[in-house]
């Protein structure tokens, strides 16, 4: 197969795997470009992407279930090497005439693998006995014709199988998970010894490739982008600007509920450093008016979100000839919106997850260069594009901003207090994280804080300052450890740091006489208070 793409592609068919995101990631870590595609992509659509190899991911369903995710069996006739993992092994077995059945008890976690075939190409250079990571209930009971069983475990008669002649390999275990001792050795065998791919893909290649893609998509048209100050929109802006220069206009809607220093950072980076056309919309007063008297969290969110798009389209419609809207959608956004289930090829996914409320009669085509990437890859890309570390490593921040960290009505006075207190929390915990980074070399190490901020509740309490009684507000400090925000634990911060944050807030922020620390995990709480 011939491709116009300068790099070889490994397509990962996604059956909804818990570890699915890791597969494409691991392949990219080995310097081969990889993208995830929906499992029900047709053989024709897949052929049109000119992949060099295919990986079938794991998935939570049972291949024996009636509504089990299916795949086009013609994909096995494309003449490409295929690696099936977990569910991927089972569907490979089924489609090619083997048999899959239920077991009474599944196999979850570490398992001891026994190699049964010294000639296995996938397991070459690995010992006869080794630890692998399992997560399954069903097993392959009979392998299809032409396949050899290459390993077993106590509970799994076919822990791996291969048909060397046709280039089909499969494992019931997960080589992409670190707990599988020789997982990376196996992936390397598949990519380099079996598929003969080249380890030539890098972040710089990615930038060049994406720049070319954006250029050919956009041509001479104009592009608009809503800049939030977050990592994804910032990296998208830098990338699109590298591709089409001043054809891109960034619109920054300042709703007045950003953290201290953020609007200034956006100005500094995009207007001064990158010299991008930037429209800074000062919507602070309109938002203040809009939120008067509003106390319900959901209503706050709704009003802020709706107003955001009103502000944005008011600007967009005034600019002449804008045909494209660039967005920092990343792969997990697509997953979260449930679009993956809709199937079809990548372009179909986009239209499904697009929830932008375009005003009547308005239409922009979307440019979404990050839609196959994960957050940490987007960060690497940002660094490679020259964005400052402070922006690239910025912690998650909700769209409605500080409004959902002020319990009750949002007022200018409360906003001013919260901005100051939040700046202290961030300053102290940025330094704490930086110290951990120096010690461990990892940005999100075991005890580093993933997200940390201040919350201003709608209560007052009695205190004493000097000889005076005070009756003022408290600040709640929230700091969590997490990797994906789905679950989180409160950060076990050293007491001296908690103490310093408390003293600084009470000393430096007018109107605060007490500081409390939120020690609730998610679940049962959420990370944000509203
Ligand atoms: P919760 O509070 O649900 O938050 O545990 C999970 C993660 O999502 C962030 N968050 C938001 N992000 N718009 C966003 O872009 C929002 O409306 C929003 N609400 C919550 C939150 O900061 C945390 O990282």
Describe the fold and architecture.
The protein is of the alpha/beta class. It has helices at residues 20-29, 43-47, 87-95, 183-194, 203-218, 231-244, 262-273, 284-290, 297-318, 331-336, 346-353, 375-384, 389-392, 412-440, 495-508, and strands at residues 9-14, 33-38, 53-56, 82-85, 99-101, 107-115, 129-136, 139-142, 148-152, 160-163, 168-171, 222-227, 248-254, 278-282, 322-326, 365-367, 451-455, 461-465, 468-481, 489-490, 512-517. A hairpin with a 7-residue loop joins strand 9 (148-152) and strand 10 (160-163). The longest helix is centred in the C-terminal third of the chain and has 29 residues, at 412-440. It binds xanthosine-5'-monophosphate. Xanthosine-5'-monophosphate binds next to loops. Xanthosine-5'-monophosphate is lined by residues 301, 396, 398-400, 451, 485, 522, 526-528.
């Amino acid at each position: 197969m011939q491709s116009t793409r300068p790099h070889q592609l490994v397509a990962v068919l996604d059956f909804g795997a818990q570890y699915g995101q890791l597969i494409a990631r691991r392949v990219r870590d080995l310097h081969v470009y990889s993208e995830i595609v929906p499992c029900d992509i047709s053989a024709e659509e897949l052929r049109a992407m000119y992949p060099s190899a295919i990986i079938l991911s794991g998935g939570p369903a049972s291949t024996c279930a009636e509504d089990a995710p299916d795949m086009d069996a013609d994909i096995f006739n494309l003449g490409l090497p295929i690696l099936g993992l977990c569910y991927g092994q089972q569907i490979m077995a089924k489609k090619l005439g083997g048999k899959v059945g239920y077991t009474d008890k599944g196999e979850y976690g570490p398992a001891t693998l026994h190699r049964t075939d010294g000639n296995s190409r996938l397991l070459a250079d690995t010992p006869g006995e080794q630890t692998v990571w399992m997560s399954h209930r069903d097993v392959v009971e009979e392998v299809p014709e032409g396949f050899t069983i290459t390993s077993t475990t106590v509970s799994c008669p076919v822990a791996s199988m291969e048909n060397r002649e046709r280039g089909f390999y499969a494992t019931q275990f997960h080589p992409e998970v670190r707990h599988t001792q020789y997982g990376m050795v196996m992936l390397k065998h598949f990519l380099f010894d079996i598929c003969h791919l080249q380890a030539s893909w890098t972040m710089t290649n990615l930038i060049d490739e994406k720049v070319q893609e954006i250029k050919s998509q956009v041509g001479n048209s104009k592009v608009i982008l809503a800049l939030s100050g977050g990592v994804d929109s910032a990296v998208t802006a830098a990338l699109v600007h590298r591709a089409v220069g001043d054809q891109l206009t960034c619109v920054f809607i300042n709703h007045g509920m950003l953290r201290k220093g953020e609007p200034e950072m956006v100005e500094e980076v995009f207007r001064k450093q990158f010299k991008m056309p930037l429209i800074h919309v000062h919507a602070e007063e309109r938002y203040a008016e809009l939120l008067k008297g509003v106390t319900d969290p959901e209503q706050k969110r709704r009003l802020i979100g709706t107003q955001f798009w009103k502000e944005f389209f008011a600007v967009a419609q005034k600019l002449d000839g804008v045909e494209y809207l660039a967005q920092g959608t990343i792969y997990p956004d697509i997953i979260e919106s449930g679009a993956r289930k809709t199937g079809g090829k990548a372009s179909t996914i986009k239209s499904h997850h697009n929830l932008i409320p375009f005003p009547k009669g308005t239409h922009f085509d979307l440019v979404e260069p990050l839609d196959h990437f994960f957050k940490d890859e987007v960060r690497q890309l940002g660094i490679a594009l020259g964005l400052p570390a402070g922006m690239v490593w910025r912690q998650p921040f909700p769209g409605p901003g500080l409004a959902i960290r002020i319990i009750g009505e949002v007022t200018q006075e409360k906003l001013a207090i919260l901005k100051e207190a939040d700046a202290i929390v961030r300053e102290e915990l940025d330094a704490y994280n930086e110290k951990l980074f120096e010690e461990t070399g990892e940005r999100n190490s075991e005890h580093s804080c993933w997200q940390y901020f201040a919350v201003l509740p709608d209560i007052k309490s009695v205190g004493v300052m000097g000889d005076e009684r005070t009756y003022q507000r408290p600040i709640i400090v929230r700091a969590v450890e997490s990797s994906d925000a789905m679950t989180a634990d409160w950060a076990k911060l050293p007491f001296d740091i908690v103490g310093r944050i408390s003293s600084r807030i009470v000393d430096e922020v007018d109107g605060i006489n007490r500081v409390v620390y939120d020690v609730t995990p998610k679940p049962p709480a959420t990370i944000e208070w509203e």
